[in-house]
Amino acid sequence: MADQEEEDLRMALRMSMQHSPPEPKRSKPRENVAVTSIDSSEESPEIKARRLQRELMAAAAERRMMMGKNTGSISTLERPVGLNVSDNAVPVVIEDKRVSTGPGSEKVETLGYGRLLSHDEANQLFSIIFGGGVSRDILAQWTNQGIRGGVGWRKVFISFQVLSHVMSWFSPDPETSMGLVQHEGGPCGVLAAIQAFVLKNLLFSPDKFGWQDPGSTRSSKSEWDVFSCLTEDGKTRALVRSIGEILSLCGSNRRVVIATLNVLGHENKSSKDGPGGEIDSKGLETLSIESALDLQRIIRVNECTSPASAFKKLEAMVPEFQSRMGAMLFLISALLSRGLDSIQTDRDDPSLPLVTAPFGHASQEIVNLLLCGQAVPNVFDGRMDFGGGMFLKGIPVNVEVGFLTLLESLNFCKVGHYLKYPKYPIWVVGSESHYTVLFALDTSVQDENELEVRESQIRKAFDAQDQSGGGGFISVEGFHQVLKETNINLPPEKLDYLCNTGFIVRSEFWQVLLDLDKSLGGLKDSTGLMGKKVFDIYHFNGIAKSVVNGTQLGEIPVQRPRLTKLRVSVPPRWTPEEFIADMAATSVSTEKDAVVEVSKPEPCQHAPLVDCIRTRWPRALCNWVGDPPSIV
User: Fold this and answer.
1) For residue 251, which of 195, 199, 309, 294 has the smallest C-alpha distance?
2) Which of helix, strand or coil describes residue 459?
3) Could you report the per-residue pLDDT of 554-570, keeping only the tens digit for each?
4) pTM higher than the cut 0.85
5) Beta strands of 34-152 (E only): which ranges?
6) Residues 511-544, buried b or exposed e (16+ Cβ, 10 A)?
């Protein structure tokens, strides 16, 4: 009889989740479907009656679950419905919080599988993400994108193998094996931020993930070999660590809130197969989120207050982040880690949804939250004060992973120093409709060369004497102080020329320096090549693109993301324009950045990504092999 009651309970909760899975799609909405909000008032009487029946059955099931907990016994009802953990399984992490209830007494609060969202939390969360009206197309995009790659994943966490036979964290293609694959248009901002942190961990902490330092392999191997030598176990550990780092950043390094699914599927079929078995995924396939009520039903949250417990919990939740709800679970986790009230305080206009209409793209606030831990809407540094209590909020702190945008090249915004010069040479790149990732294999691409250091020294000394509020001119007395601090020896005629008006203009001073030999403290460069920087940089676009893959059975189109290597040549910022064309046409750089003559130089190429790169390295010249890199 007890077994029958438990089966009835499972069936009731499964029926409460029975919505037709939305049709997968990309950014463009379907032509024949109007973008309307989902409102129960528009349902037919028959559909509404079925929905109400499911709600009643789910409520009854939840009451019985609570009754089971109140008896003090540990029963299967304390687990997510449909999850039957075998004896060989790794247990889900349970974090204990000891709460003092009086002298000599202590109460242990067990998190276990977490708690359901309250009614108010679910309403506020759904409103912050999607607003008051959201189309089914947008909901489909955000509930059909897992944090995963394609076919070919081998089991890493054996005890939780949901979808392990078809899903992968990373792309199965050797050339893009370090990349996450995106199938939906909306969550690209979330996936790009995760991808950037994964690259940070793989490239700059390689010893932690069991592979050789890329800096020591790129001289003897191609760049594709560097990425293909990554192991699945190492990549998965890097991704779990990256998710934990982002959530910890959102929680101000004090807490991590992890959202998981309340329903994991049907009976475990691994009892007879041992650790190699699988958990049926039908329970996941029928889940959908169309309202705040759905969030309240299917989302559980756990709060971890230490990094160790958070990472263990994330390891246990691998299948759920891989499932088609993965991107949504991660976004909810980030928002709850920050705190919903804090999210609204971060924003300039909290009335707008974080997922933007009509295409369901991640807003800049979502991307900034994942990069700096605060959901500020702008990309400049600090706060822009307009007086009268009016101000706009930008990036408050230095970041490990940066951000560049095509919109800056179009003069729609100005990215600040914090995002443009991150700790690691990795940037999320934003276009009008998509987010991708730009990265280098070592940090030297951000180093200043000798002439750039010299330029910064002179500019700093000049600015210190500028009393015009940034107008770009100083007094004669201040000018002599600049010459003394920077060891510049101007010929008498040049000195008289600059001082004859009683003040010195920056642009005129700079032109004199360009004509003054380096031995006298100037920046003269007769070739236009002094201070030139040449380096390789890579662009990754996670949107899956159909390519032909030759096999013994013929050429079969496969879905794979795109990775492009770019050779970037950066002239000094003070190089006269007439030298730039000559520089591209007469020289290339060796690995030691020594300039050598070539007979048939490659012409510089252009794509929208080059405009983004030039916001970081002005007047950069780029070359690549094959198709141009795409930021859409």
Assistant:
1) 309
2) helix
3) 555 666 789 999 999 98
4) no
5) 96-102, 105-110, 115-116
6) ebbeebeeeebbbebeebbbbbbbbebbbbbbbb
* pLDDT tens-digit readout, 82-124: 333 333 333 333 343 433 334 433 333 334 568 999 999 999 9
Inter-residue contact 569 to 584 (CB < 8 Å): yes
Burial class (CB in 10 A: 0-12, 13-18, 19+), 184: buried
Task: Report the candidate in 168, 172, 177, 182 with the shortest Cα–Cα distance to residue 27.
Answer: 182
Distance CA 46, CA 10 (A): 24
Reported residue count of the chain is 632
Degrees, nearest 5: CA angle 478-484-485: 90
The pLDDT tens digits of the residues spanning 351-367 come to 999 999 888 999 999 99
Rg (CA), the chain: 29
10 Å Cβ neighbour count for 333?
26
E-strand ranges in 367-512 read 383-387, 390-393, 402-405, 426-430, 435-439, 473-475, 503-505
Of 515, 469, 463, 511, the closest CA to residue 486 belongs to 463
Burial 451-461 (b: 16+ CB within 10 A, else e): bbebbeebeeb
List residues bridging with 257 in a β-sheet: 303
* 3-class DSSP state of 455: helix
Secondary structure class of 252 (helix, strand, coil): coil
Residue 492, classed as helix, strand or coil, is helix
Phi-psi region of 256 (alpha: psi -120 to 50; beta: other; left: phi over 0): beta
Whether the Cβ atoms of residue 180 and residue 338 lie closer than 8 Å to each other: no
Q: By the 8 A CB rule, do 512 and 498 touch?
A: yes
Q: Which two tokens stand for residue 296?
A: 């309240």
Beta-carbon neighbour count of residue 497 at 10 Å?
13
Amino acid at 32: N
Q: For 320, which DSSP code?
A: H
Task: Give the CA dihedral 304, 116, 37, 21, nearest 10 degrees.
Answer: 90
